[in-house]
Prior knowledge:
By secondary structure, this protein is α/β, with parallel strands linked by helices. The chain has one domain: 5-stranded Propeller (L-arginine/glycine Amidinotransferase, Chain A). The chain has eight helices and 15 strands. The longest helix has 9 residues, at 60-68.
Amino acid sequence: MYAIIDKRCSEEIKNNLNNYVEGIFEFSSENITYNAISGHPDIFMFQDKDKLIIAPNAPKELFQFLNEKQLQYSVGIKNVGYSVEESSLYNCFSTNDNFFCKVGVPDNSIEEYCVKKKTIALTQSYVRCSLFGIDATKMITSDLGIVKSLKSNAINYFYFEPSEIKIRDHKYGFIGGTMGRLKDKIFFLGNILKHKNGLELHNYITSNKQEVICLGNDYLYDGGGIFFIE
């Protein structure tokens, strides 16, 4: 098992994460998209339990890593860029039955892969940044627009207020960009208990018989998520 995270994560986070995986790929890019998200895996990668799709202009070092470790993936169609539309092509989320996206935004390769799933239409382009599932039926989000869509589709959710989530170059980040899941463990880039509704989130997750792993002691860092790959 390997993990892919933003190279700019703290050494504390990287050292703690190393206890759970064989190795870490520290993701970074230059001159592809804007700085705040240039190291975010979720801008360049779509993943669910059966599929990993990578943007064709993802850094060559990522492809080298995946090939060296003999990890399976496919390559998308469109390149990541600087605009909202170009930087959210791969930033969507799916479960066994549902595909969460802003309609018309995802790369065609992802739309084709998810064609048999029910589309949950959202107003937010950066879906994986703003939404994460602790299982197929329980979601965590920091976006009130997404909350409305989850409610209208009778999907269980926890709303996490985002004002204290750290991110480069912006006032605050999004909860999905701080998270990753490995089997029954839910990982965070930082410590949720530093946040005002962190204990509630901790209880929401553990009541689902899952373990919370806080990889750092500081406030949560939106680094584009933690991608576990085997």
